[in-house]
Amino acid sequence: MIIIRDVTKTYTNGDVTTDALKNINLTIEDGEFIVILGPSGSGKSTLLNVISGLDTVTSGEITFNSTALTSLSESEMTAFRREHLGFIFQQYNLLQNLNVLDNIQIGADIGKDPLDGQELLKAVGLQEAGNKYPHQLSGGEQQRVSIARSLAKNPDIIFCDEPTGSLDEHNSKNVLAMLQELNNNYHKTIVLITHNAGIAEMADKVIKMNSGEITEFIMNKEKKSAREISWG
Ligand SMILES: Nc1ncnc2c1ncn2[C@@H]1O[C@H](COP(=O)(O)OP(=O)(O)OP(=O)(O)O)[C@@H](O)[C@H]1O
C-alpha cells in the first residue's frame, strides 16, 4: 500500500513559483487500478513523478508498506524503483538497434526476480516478433513491447503516463486490455494518467485533479472491460 500524506510540490524558476501539487492525500491499495484524470497542467505527471521518486516532494510524506520513500537517499530510491516499480510512457522508448526480445531483456536485467522474455512476448501477443526490430512494428505493437519490458523485472506497481496517447482506438483498447489483464490476473497495482475520461470506466478508483489539487474521488461500483469503455 502507498500512503501519500499532505504532499506539496512547488517549482521555483527565478521569481516564478508554481504550486504544482497542493496538499495531496491519497491511499493506493495493493492491486488497485487507479486512473488520474485532469486537464493539462493540473499536476498529474508531477503527482506520478513524486509517488515514483522520479522527483522530490517539497513537503509531506510518501510511504510504501513500511518504507518512508520521502526519507530515502537518491541511491536508495533508485534501488527501490528498480526493484518495485515499472513505467510505461506515451513514447515507447525502445532501443532501435536491438530486437524486440533484447529490448525486453533490458528490463529483466535490472530486476531481482525477472520474468522470462519469451513468456512475456507471448503474454503481449507478440510471440512471433522476438527477432523483429522496433521500426518493423506498428505503434500499438511497440507499446506492447514496452509493456513487456516494464513487466520483465516483475514490478509490484506499474505507472502509466498517457500510455495510449499516440494510439488509435483499436490499438489503445488492446493495450488497455493488457493492463487490465495484468491487474486482474497478476494483481499488479496500476496507476494510469490520462486526458481520456472513457478510460476511467476501467478503474477501481478515479482521481480528478485541477490546479494541483484533488477535486474528486470516485469509487467505481462496476468496472468496464477495456473493450467496452466509451471513447471520446
Ligand atoms: N520542471 C518544472 N518546472 C517548473 N514548472 C513545472 C515543472 N514541471 C511542471 N511544472 C508546472 O507544474 C504544473 C503541473 O504540471 P504537470 O506536468 O504535472 O501537469 P499535467 O496535468 O501532467 O499536464 P499534461 O496533461 O499537460 O501533461 C504546470 O503548471 C506546469 O507548468
Automatic annotation (TrEMBL):
Pfam families: ABC_tran
UniProt GO MF annotations: ATP binding; ATP hydrolysis activity; transmembrane transporter activity
SUPFAM superfamilies, per database record: P-loop containing nucleoside triphosphate hydrolases
UniProt protein name: Putative ABC transport system ATP-binding protein
Parts forming coiled coils: none
Top-level division of the source organism's lineage: Bacteria
Annotated signal sequence range: none
Similarity comment: Belongs to the ABC transporter superfamily.
Annotated Gene Ontology cellular component terms: membrane protein complex
Organism lineage: Bacteria, Bacillati, Bacillota, Bacilli, Bacillales
Keyword match Phosphoprotein: no
Keywords noted in UniProt: ATP-binding, Nucleotide-binding, Transport
Keyword field contains Transport: yes
